[in-house]
Amino acid sequence: MINPFNSGYYTSEELKDFGFPFIGKNVKVAKDCSIVGLENIEIGDNSRIDSFSSIIAASGFVRIGRYVHIGGGAYIGGAGGVTLNDFSGLSGGVNIYSASDDYSGRSLTNPTVPAAYTGVKRAPISLGRHVIIGSGSIVLPGCDLGEGVAVGALSLVNKNLGAWGIYSGVPCRLIAARKQGLLEKETLLESENRR
């Protein structure tokens, strides 16, 4: 019996016909996602985007590397540019904002107001290889998360984070070093793929 509650995934072959500039092999995108600005979004091999995620790149760009997972209900705003490097992952409900309104009161806010009257800050966001971000976390414009960073659930990332650290809190702070054993697993996977 077919499950009527599972909308399923588009495959790489289907996605290549939609207008993305690059779609890798074995890509899966849930059919109930909201994606705007296909022409500004690239998705690498073996990556998956789950249900109810939104990727908005009407301006700017979103570049998704290989073996990237975007959990259900995640949001990526690409106006300032967002890069998710290989093996990175977003848990459910993570929000990535590469553009933000000026909250000081000096400018009008929201996308219905002409740009001349707003003070939107746009700055690129980069998630290094093997970065993982826990559920409900928020990443603000201009943040660079170094290789191997792990961010705990419900954290606020408002600054650059150094490589191979575990961070948590509002705003997030370094709480421990992250082990690098996963790099051995990556090497094994890559050598198996070359066979």
Structural account:
This protein is mainly beta and 195 residues long. It is globular and about 60 Å long. Strand 22 and strand 23 form a beta hairpin. It has helices spanning 12-15, 182-194, and strands at 9-10, 22-23, 28-30, 34-36, 41-43, 48-49, 54-56, 62-64, 69-70, 75-77, 82-84, 89-90, 95-97, 99-100, 121-122, 125-127, 132-133, 138-139, 144-145, 150-151, 156-157, 165-169, 172-177. The N and C termini lie far apart (37 Å). Strands 1-3-6-9-12-17-20-22-23 form a 9-stranded mixed β-sheet. It has one domain (9-194): UDP N-Acetylglucosamine Acyltransferase, domain 1, CATH 2.160.10.10.
Tags for this entry?
23 strands, 6-stranded parallel beta sheet, globular, mainly beta, 9% helix, UDP N-Acetylglucosamine Acyltransferase, domain 1
